[in-house]
Amino acid sequence: MSAKRLGIGLIGTGNISSAYLKAILGKDGMPGFPVLDIKGLADMRPEAAAARAAEFGLKAMSIDELLADPEIALVINLTIPRAHVEVGLKCLAAGKHVYSEKPLGVTYAEGRKLLDAANAAGLRIGSAPDTFLGGAHQQARAVVDSGVLGQLVGGTAFMLSPGHESWHPDPAFYYDLGGGPMLDMGPYYITDLVNLLGPVASVSAMSSRLRTERTITSEPKRGQTMPVRIDTHVTGALGFANGAIVQIGMSFDVAGHKHVPLEIYGTEQSLIVPDPNFFGGAVETRKRGREEQWQPVPVAQPYADGNYRSLGVADMALAILENRPHRANGDLALHVLEVMEAFEHAASQGRTVEIKTPVERPAPLAESLRDGRLG
Ligand SMILES: NC(=O)c1ccc[n+]([C@@H]2O[C@H](COP(=O)([O-])OP(=O)(O)OC[C@H]3O[C@@H](n4cnc5c(N)ncnc54)[C@H](O)[C@@H]3O)[C@@H](O)[C@H]2O)c1
């Protein structure tokens, strides 16, 4: 474990903040990330920050106090998607690095604005998802990098669900602008694919919105209807710069299916990658040949056995202290945001859309591990 620590503030103490704080502070059997020295929590609802602070033995602050605190070098932004860029720009203006939940922004233009402001200020942007740093996904990356798959042909990516109104207490935002299956779940899948295959070069798509209104079936808003302002069934193809082509389906309209989340095809072997919404899961390969069977790939990489949300910001904090690039970075998140927005343009304009934001595959996590763990 590293003795180096970076002062951290956290803005947005809703649902997901609990998972971050458990992973950072080492609760529920997690090893913790001591490099993240949490100085305070804030929310536009002060009572939410106070409750979360009391739960974890931390300090609640107002947003202005947090931004003015000289001990805080980096802010973790866990607000809702439509507030990510607005809150991020405030943090940059206060001289803080920012790590944001996904998506980076709800449009490419606002994500670009955030990155430009950070570059101008000499500050860093990081962004979820960081599940691609999980042990199962890093193991899949090692399989791809070993070359055993042969020439990379393509793959499939599926997140097909009936929508969130059966369980989420307040699901209207999923069907409003900035919502939809692509912006909500696409970051996990597309980030994992870029980690495995490299940059996306082009996108083609078709999408539909068969219902213009949906009914909430979860409590406490059961029976209320919500307008649908986005397409809820999105299909298409991602053309990668290396020539691989991946078919994708993201939906809030599907009752059930039997696809695996991610498959990668090579001329010599195929690879199954587990659900990119999680850090662990089963990795499998199958060689070409009639008699061949799917074989498990043992997951030897760390961070496969728990909900390590904050792994990406721990890597970012260490990278700042060690003056090296961080993996879940703004360039990667902006590339993924451009790809997700391209699905809308490709579908509505009936054309293939070129992707322009350059991106490099992040280095495998193993290169920054000491004693098998990040500090
Ligand atoms: N809930 C999950 O399971 C989950 C999982 C992965 C990622 N995420 C992502 O995490 C983010 C937060 O999701 P959540 O479920 O925790 O949402 P949430 O609504 O439970 O919490 C968001 C919090 O941010 C606060 N907030 C909103 N706008 C703000 C602003 N302008 N300034 C300060 N505070 C503000 C709200 O008061 C609220 O406490 C989203 O980007 C979501 O996509 C959520």
UniProtKB/TrEMBL annotation:
Occurrences of domain GFO/IDH/MocA-like oxidoreductase (ranges): 137-271
Transmembrane residue ranges: none
InterPro entries noted in UniProt: Gfo/Idh/MocA-like_OxRdtase_N, Gfo/Idh/MocA_oxidrdct_glycsds, GFO_IDH_MocA-like_dom, NAD(P)-bd_dom_sf
GO molecular function, one term: oxidoreductase activity
Domain Gfo/Idh/MocA-like oxidoreductase N-terminal: 7-125
Keyword Oxidoreductase: yes
Ranges where the record places region Disordered: 353-375
UniProt entry keywords in alphabetical sequence: Oxidoreductase
Signal peptide start and end residues: none
PANTHER family (alphabetical): BCDNA.GH03377
Protein's name according to its UniProt entry: Oxidoreductase
Lineage: Bacteria, Pseudomonadati, Pseudomonadota, Alphaproteobacteria, Hyphomicrobiales
